[in-house]
Protein: Methylesterase 3
Amino acid sequence: MRRIILVHGSCHGAWCWYKVVAMLRTQGYAAAAIDLAACGADPRRLPQDVSSFDEYTRPLMDLVAAVPDGEKVVLVGHMFGGLSLASVMDAFPEKVAAAVFLSGMMPDTTHAPSYIDLTLASMMIRPTSLFYQELSKKPAFSKEGYGSVDKIYIICEDDAAIDEDFQQWMIENNPVKEVMKIRGADHMAMLSKPKELCECIKSIVKKYAN
Structure:
């Protein structure tokens, strides 16, 4: 069975996935959540100990790099975790069966990764994300790497942090294999609608990772 790796957004940690991990494991899925650098149980702190996006994403990068040749994982990223997914997909497309963006930041293959931050800020008058200056200097993710992996977007219908219009904007600017919607889900669907989210993930694994 494919491994499922769950990636948190900014200001969270692996802990936020505890309901989903428990449900998936109970049903026989090899699911695990990871702490990115300076998050959750990781003792480091931002920005003193982790000064770059690459450092921040390193725990996920190392985990996927260690996947044996010929095996693939399913990645699920929430919010800012979508950019971490994109980095790993770009580096190891052959090791990712499918990538799931849960109300997540989903970049395209044309603009620098910071482009979606800038657009979100202009649409919602919100601060841009961590590492904005660094991300603004990074090249766009490649069509050969990031662009070659099957992407699925899960819309959280009642997300007040990233509203549905912005989620739809990302989908229109970077077409995906499939769009799902969790009705009544707020920004933290893994806590408010864990059962519905699990059903989405199970459907994705069955369709894209078997």
